[in-house]
Amino acid sequence: ISDLRDHPQLRFGLSNAFMQRVDGWPGVRKAYELTQTPNGLDHDLAYRGLAEGALDITDLYQTDAEIPYYKLTVLDDNLGYFPSYQAVFLYRNDLAARAPAWVAALEGFAGKIDASTMQSLNARVKIDHEDESTVAADWLGIDAPESSGMSARIWKRTLEHLVLVGISLGMALIVALPMGVLAARRPRLGQVILTATGLLQTLPSLAVFVFMIPLLGIGAKPAIAALFLYSLLPIVRNTHAGLTGISRDLRETAAAIGLPPSTRLWRIELPLALRTILAGIKTAAVINVGTATLGALIGAGGYGQPILAGIRLDDMGLILEGAIPAAALALAVQGLFELSERILTPRGLRLEASA
Questions:
Q1: In whole angstroms, what is the distance from residue 143 CA to residue 278 CA?
Q2: Average model confidence (pLDDT) for the chain?
Q3: Which of 14, 20, 1, 7 is nearest to 55 (CA)?
Q4: Which of 14-24 are b and which e, b meaning 16 or more Cβ less than 10 Å from the residue's Cβ?
Q5: Which of 181, 247, 281, 290 has the fewest Cβ atoms nearer than 10 Å?
Q6: What values do phi and psi take at 158, rounded to 5?
């Protein structure tokens, strides 16, 4: 690694975790007095960068299958900076009492898999695209469990994705529609509401998902909460825009004939603003479908699960298994709301628009 000091022109691409770890790049740079400025990226994508000539240097694990596959040179830690990393089992304190046989089986693996064995097993999965369960079962000398077919997997992920999108969008409708009406009726308060929901939209989606973990744990709940927050702005903004965009003469006429505020809202204002409101809901739904794929990062399932697995395993088929249904669902949602707009829009307004 010391030789890197003589090659400042080399392009470094390091995994995001290694960039931040105290025992990662900050410590390596200081110990070896390196001057290069690396870029952060996903660890599994770094090998593609090396293969395509976009990168010269990356961090790695000794068990990575890509090392022999791409014929990479592993640099010697000649200053002995890195400690010896050992894999350990982590489990709940009461697991030994609840499932002693399981713990005994787990501890029976201690010392059984060395780096070269793990590297070859990883190669069968990542390079040869064999099923993980099959490779593990073959190494254990037992029969592999039957894997579900693609259609069954897609159906399962579809149900998970629909739960994430449906619940979060439904909650957003309950909250955002009244907020949009309030923003239109109270201009000063409306600016506060629009600003607050706009700020939520500017937050990085992945950060919002992670922020919810301390509050709601791992799984669907934090993902639904994050998607709910991201769905607010389009609905609030379009509801506000639809109501404030109604002709002042129409509002004054409705008030002049003595219609109470609630009747004016339900009978006149909301029907006139319906198209704009539905456009906001449609936007929120389509964004929701795409953003929900990030839920797989925190254990929420959905279409993001095969996409992440495909990136990790460098398997384009798995990536498409999640990406294509997600795109199809987004198109279906858009079509559904366009149909709903035609059905719900009063006939007189439809005739006016067509004229």
A1: 53
A2: 86
A3: 14
A4: bbeebbeeeeb
A5: 247
A6: -65, -45
